[in-house]
UniProtKB/TrEMBL annotation:
Protein name (record): Fluoride-specific ion channel FluC
Cellular component terms per the entry's GO annotation: plasma membrane
Reaction(s) this enzyme catalyzes, per UniProt: fluoride(in) = fluoride(out)
InterPro entries in UniProt: FluC (IPR003691)
Keywords: Cell membrane, Ion channel, Ion transport, Membrane, Metal-binding, Sodium, Transmembrane, Transmembrane helix, Transport
GO biological process annotation, one example: cellular detoxification of fluoride
Amino acid sequence: MKNILAISAGAAVGTYLRYLFNLQTQFTDYPLGTLMENLIGSLLLGLVSGYVAARKPRDWVKAGLGVGVCGSFTTFSTFAADTVGLFLEQNMWVSLFYILITLVGGISLAMAGFLFGEKRGGGVS
């Protein structure tokens, strides 16, 4: 139960921070808010992961900071942390393959989903 409460509280913080970043950058043509969220979130999850590895805090602390704050602030931070983990535990080629599949697959599926949703919504025929 502590984990669920910690994740919920952390998610509220991460979501609020994400909203603030987007408010500050909503008038630009470049997705600066998203870029900042992804980069800062990656740094934050790296810091949390390093802290967890070194200090071994209680499970609810790990869940609240990692899954809650970082997970709601950005999902890119998890992708970055997974890539680093693959690089450290496997090898460079495995991590590069993961990057390629994630980026190409994610963008392709986002485009397919957009086109499908647009068609189902009565847009382009």
